[in-house]
């Protein structure tokens, strides 16, 4: 398992924005597609977005299309999730994840996860 670290979560009012970061210290993220998942209390974990190793292909879950954007800065070894127009339904723990065998999306069954970062959106 490869170690990922998320940051950037917090509390925000509905309509606000947050940017999450996913970093790694022991390996290069550009070797892998990176997916963002989230899990709200009492709900199943769902995939929010995916970006391939080169950053050329990106995909999003329907409920976040047009509001969220994932990007990567391979020189800085970081992947971002920019979240705009946040809603109360976006409240969840957000995780970045990868499959060690995949440089391309989708990442359906990750084998490496971060510890998660809490995002709370008040209505």
List keywords for this structure.
single chain; 123 residues; 11 strands; globular
Question: What does this 3D model show about the protein?
Answer:
- It is a single chain.
- With 123 residues, the chain is mainly beta.
- It is 0% helix and 45% strand.
- The strands form two sheets. Strands 2, 4, 5, 6, 9, 10 and 11 form a seven-stranded mixed sheet that branches. It has a four-stranded antiparallel sheet with strand order 1-3-8-7, with no helix packed on it.
- A hairpin with a 6-residue loop joins strand 5 and strand 6.
- The chain is globular, with a radius of gyration of 13 Å.
- Please give the number of β-strands: 11
The coarse overall form would be globular
Helix content: under 10%
What's the SSE pattern?
EEEEEEEEEEE
User: What separation lies between the terminal Cα atoms?
Assistant: 37 Å
Strand content: 35-45%
Number of helices: 0
Unreliable stretches (pLDDT < 50, length at least 5) are none
Mean pLDDT: 96
Oligomer: single chain
In short:
With 123 residues, the chain is mainly beta. The protein has no helices and eleven strands. The relative contact order is 0.32.
Summarize the topology:
Blueprint: E1 5-7, E2 10-13, E3 18-23, E4 34-39, E5 46-51, E6 58-60, E7 68-73, E8 78-83, E9 92-98, E10 112-113, E11 117-122
Parallel strand pairs: 2-11
Antiparallel strand pairs: 1-3, 3-8, 4-5, 4-9, 5-6, 7-8, 9-10, 9-11
């Amino acid at each position: 398992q490869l170690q990922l670290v998320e940051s950037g979560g917090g509390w925000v009012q509905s309509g606000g924005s947050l940017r999450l970061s996913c970093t790694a210290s022991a390996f290069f993220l550009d070797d892998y597609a990176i997916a963002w998942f989230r899990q709200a209390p009492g709900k199943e974990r769902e995939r929010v977005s995916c970006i391939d190793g080169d950053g050329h292909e990106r995909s999003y879950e329907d409920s976040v299309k047009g509001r969220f954007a994932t990007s990567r800065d391979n020189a800085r070894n970081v992947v971002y999730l920019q979240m705009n127009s946040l809603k109360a339904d976006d409240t969840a723990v957000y995780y970045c994840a990868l499959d060690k065998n995949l440089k391309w999306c989708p990442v359906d069954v990750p084998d490496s996860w971060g510890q998660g970062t809490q995002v709370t959106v008040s209505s």
